[in-house]
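lol so apparently i was supposed to do this last week
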Amino acid sequence: MDKIAILDYGSQLTHLLATEVRRLNVYSEILDSETKASDLAGYKGIILSGGPSSVYDEGSPQVDPEIFNLNIPILGICYGHQLIVQAFGGKVESGLVKEYGKASLKIVNNIGLLEGFSVNEETQVWMSHGDDATKLPDGFQTLASTKDCEFAIIGNPERKIYSLQFHLEVAHTVKGKEMLANFLKICNVSYDWNLQDYLDQKIQEIRREVADKKVFLLVSGGVDSTVAFALLEKAIGADKVYGMFVDTGFLRKKEVEQVEAALKSIGIEDLNVYRGSNQYFTALEGIYDPEEKRRVIGDLFLDIQDTVSRDLNLNPADWLLGQGTIYPDTIESGGTKNSQKIKTHHNRVERIEELIKQGKVIEPVKDLYKDEVRQIGKLLGLPSEMIERHPFPGPGLAVRTLCTPPNLPEGTNLASTEINNFLHNNYPELNLSALIAPIKSVGVQGDGRTYRHPLILNLPTMSAVFSDEQFNQLLDVSTALTNQFNTINRVILSLKEPVSNAELILAQYLTPERISLLQNADAIWNEELKQSGHYTKIWQAPLVLAPIAINGEKFESVILRPISSKEAMTADVYPLSGSTLQEIVYKLSKLELSGIFYDLTHKPPGTIEWE
Ligand code: XMP
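anyway here it is w/ xanthosine-5'-monophosphate bound
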């Protein structure tokens, strides 16, 4: 089988790149960034991935320059692009304007990688970088540019080396697949890889891995662990899989009953439900830091599994721990050599990592993305209503309920004058005003984690009424703001009256009362999305509870976060407007809430969840 090598410089998207190559039916492998040219001679093409470092930093990962003499086609992406620019005498510098998210690419030369494109054609691409190539390397020509990035695609057709600043592997780079397909054509590879073969191989692999043991599987009722459950039962038989669903107290309203019923409907009768909410609330008392919350939750899953195993007299030597981990869980938790930690997914806490090292964990879908897990689910015969549910994180509403310490943290109340001047000078016709919110959320920018404030944006009047055109303008404003100001990583639009004052409510932890408020709001939100027909078009729609009281009121606020995505590595804001949005705001206003906001942030710079 012909192979493409991907050298991993630590991007959040390296694995996705490998998957995208396989989706074009070509086998690909991820290799260490330091792989020597002599070990790459058997590959039909080499891709240098993105990464969080700067090529000019001391100790940053480099490439063996000999690979450029192998006469194998090479593609550089983001950090990989900058390595190529540097290797061929170009220049890389810290960019004046950083670019995160959407950008418009203009084709100037339709050769090689851009065969089939038209000169002057414009197409949407997804950027995530702080550094820029400022001088074209020798022997290269410019193939395409964006407003802020002249050398967005460059190429040296004689040497079959192409290089681009943006990420072609994400769904939001609209024609990325065509560019990748062109690269594979340049590599002259054979097209002989598919998902059914992968499934058959996986079943054999699971049988080998489990051998004569059994699997204790932690089930969340979501797509991933259900597919993992079905896959394990198919591979080793139902009598060798013990599935346990932990009710953490952070599930959606009536979720336990729904999950039990759904699993029964597909013949999984042997689900054991553990009622753990009291334990979770107790363990999380006084904890407000997002990473700390995630660690406590992940650890408690393991404690509960230990207790149950002991109660059942299971001999630890005979059992493996099963999890429905998928690839974004691993990479976002900093799971590869050059990558940064964005957030610790609940199934990647330290204790799990330790068990993995000891060979005590089995994760049958860990190499897959959500869309592939869904396809595998389909191949296994799971019903579509189960497969098409919105993804829900293991820590559940706990990571959608922001918490605060007992005392006001330093640097909480930031002046917004500069941002208001920027809005006034650049978008005078929109009449916008803004206020930096006194809370923080997690973002991903240039392959690194950020933890910054959201910016509250006000339209001059009651904001839930806006046209589609106005909405698109607001999304552009949001991108411009997060590119320009590094104090913020999100922009949220007030859907009620303009916000003149947002007060942090202190000492807010995870309590049954707060979770119950969010469950009620979340139930209204999801019901409205279903009734209006948006639910199936939206990829995921978190509702976030934030301890900020608006305009002198005393209640907390909520943020709507509907997004479109394919595999969760990038996302864009899903547009809602008109009567649907007004109805949602009207119904949510009946709860004890002050602000209601709409998250206008793509990923990057924001992550899908807020913590
Ligand atoms: P972010 O927020 O990082 O999320 O853009 C990407 C996807 O992962 C889900 N997510 C999790 N899933 N355990 C999970 O099983 C976790 O700890 C976790 N954190 C985030 C998130 O809902 C989204 O679909």
